[in-house]
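Entry for adenosine-5'-diphosphate complex. Fields follow.
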Amino acid sequence: MNKTIEKLKFDELGLNESVLHAIQDLKFEYPSDIQAKAIPVVLDGFDIIGQAQTGTGKTLAFGAPILSLMEKSNGKVQAIIMSPTRELAVQVSEELSRIAKHERIKILPIYGGQSIDRQISALKRGVDIVVGTPGRLLDHIRKGTLKLANAKFLVLDEADEMLNMGFIEDIESIISNLSEDRQTLLFSATMPRAIKILSKKYMHPETKIIAIEKKSLTVSKIEQYYYEVNSKNKFESLCRILDVDAPKTCILFCKTKKGVDELVDALQPRGYTVEGMHGDMKQSQRMNTLKKFKDGNLNFLIATDVAARGIDVENVTHVINYDLPQDSESYIHRIGRTGRAGKEGTAYSLITRREASAIRQIERDTKSVIAKKTVPTITDIFAAKSETILDSIKLVLEENLYENFLPLGHNLIKEFGAEDVAASLIKIIFDKEVNYNYADDSTTTPITDTVRLFLSIGRMDEVMTKDIISFLCETANLNKNELGRIDILDKFSFLDVPANLVDSILNNSSGKKLNSRKVNIEVAKSRR
Ligand code: ADP
Ligand code: MG
């Protein structure tokens, strides 16, 4: 479709007044692409298959038109929404409640792990929309506690994920309990064959397919940086970053479940409020953690990619890739947890020198700039902490919040003098604030800056990476592990080397011959 559709406003889509009112309360300015395209089609009564990336507002894309079309609450289930996980079911039901705010509509999430009796009594009281995981929905249908004869709407949310999790049979059994003249809305991030088969089988022949092209960059409001760290000091480097930046709400990603557990175990005793989340944890525990995080009672959530999938928490200020993701797509998914709904966010990746080319690849794939930052020094940490400590002291001073302590202060100052007393108090606060017993900087910042060198020899001279490496190792007497990334172009090449090797290379290698061609080496002009 064309440009004009992007400019559509919510009130031009055909939604009813109370839904529009609720959207206004949510302060959403414009519908997202999937919303602008899907809402009018759903309102016209078509089945749809919606394909769009995570975080594009698919919940509202089906929720708003369904709520607009629904009849007055009559105690019978009018819509059933299937969701792959309990977290997502809860999340969808919360989003729907916000959209249904000005209507008398009852929405109930049901999922395994929660007391079935409680769900049964809630269902008995009458519910309009049920959002649930397939397994538990089916339990209720079989028990006769969930009746779907009147359901006019079926939503399969994150359908690809539900199939991945092996829910196909449950889904089919549930659908067999639904009336044929229902409206079916299927949402999926990807369109594998199994989804196509499912839709052929259970959806209307005139189903509309709405696919929103993947934007390579949904991350424009996110500032992205990387830190080159030494794997030996990775943890300490992380603590330094956390101590200087003091992120309020931060998700840290690890590659493995074990990695999550280890990082939690390392951070917790140092006074960070942190919990982990991964597939081996009990459902109730994961929900608990997520709730704390959402409510702002947890600064740091450490997760694997799988555990974090689809989880939507507002106001995540930082995403930190403690381990790099496996590919650029997961990178985007991960950092998309921050900078939601147009807010600003910051993403950090901790990489070892070996991973330098991986971060460049991510930069290219995402067409974004990931700038290098250096791990804070103890001086940086001191400066950052001093600033926040002084701010909090000034606040107490300005608001006269210290009356009760005046006599104590008076005596102390008489004995030691004001300056010494103040400094000691600041030291006590400082020690409390800094969570890591940092070694001196020399042990933690062994990674010197890299310098890019220009070599006047390239592909046309029939040189390969290994030739350049052995040329430099021989002429400048280097170890090949010290060399960084090499880019060979047609007529010349670029090479990243640690700054402390530059002189030696320029003095010993430049002007020498490789493949009987003289190689001139210079420091390259800035890349950007
Ligand atoms: P998806 O299901 O596509 O992954 P969600 O429905 O979970 O995305 O929505 C992601 C976030 O975007 C939610 O916090 C939601 O409230 C918010 N959101 C939805 N629509 C809009 C909009 N039109 N403008 C701003 N934020 C929106
Ligand atoms: Mg969703």
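NOTE: Residues 58-59, 157-158, 310 surround magnesium ion (ligand 2) (CB under 6 Å).
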